[in-house]
Amino acid sequence: MTPPEKVREHLAAWAQSATGLVEALQGKEAVDWNEARSTYDRAMAELFPAPEGISIAETLLNDIPACSITPDEIKENRTLFYIHGGGYASGSPKGYLGLAGRLALLLRAKAYIPDYRLAPQHCFPIPIDDVVRAYRAVIDLGHDPRSIIIAGDSAGGAMVVTLMRKLRDGGLPLPAVGFAMSPWANLTHTGRSMRTREHLDPACTPEFLTLLAQNFLGNALPTDPDASPVYADVCGLPPVLIHIGENELMLSDAIRLAAHLGENRVRVSLEVWPGMFHVWHLFAGVLPEADEALGNAVSWLEGVLSRVNA
Prior knowledge:
Elements: H1 5-17, H2 19-25, H3 33-47, E1 54-61, E2 64-71, E3 79-83, H4 97-107, E4 110-114, H5 126-140, E5 148-153, H6 155-169, E6 177-181, H7 193-196, H8 206-217, E7 240-245, H9 251-263, E8 268-273, H10 288-308
Parallel strand pairs: 3-4, 3-5, 5-6, 6-7, 7-8
Antiparallel strand pairs: 1-2, 2-4
């Protein structure tokens, strides 16, 4: 499937905005990490702008900077905790207001996006620890865990599962449900699709993912269960919805994650979208499949929430 022209233009601009990040990951001395990240964030905000019908504010979740999103219409105490992607090296709440904002609107949920610290300045497990602290702050604000949805994309999609594990192990209140979009769930990159989809996914290359993994892990192993949830103990977690595109490098590992969850008695739903690429949900409003995917997700999440709160 060839994406529509406007989508191709957005993909090209998205890739161009990451040039500085690639050079920084390659160790080029002239590259400034802060400048590279700022360039990427500006492009994300321009390409995937926040929708109308929401209010945005800066806040703190414990000591973690964050953005809050308040739709004009909110349902009861419903809360969305959104973990942005970016390979643990880039991304910020302001760059993901488009996707998180649309999801919050559809769910009619108050949303929080933590601005967790990034590698290589803050390697594994610091980004994960930041997300755990931010979630604890949301609970401390009085939000009912039975009405909380944890969602994320790419690295954030993997952290959806990791965060729930950390909460379980710490005896903290679990959310009602998780939603992982294009999860980067296996940093060993041993899935078959890393080879078979190498020239099909316009958003990623195996070489880029290898650089990102090395940048994030520091001295940790890629098989560490906190880095790669396909190796983790996932027993007792809430239901999880996984979306992955047919053309994604991460396809095989997303399927493996879904199987791993199911084999450990976690209710899981996996949707493989024909012809889609990494985190195509960002293109809602431009790509019909992105709007359809978000609509499908909201219907599934609503069903889980109804049963949890019956």
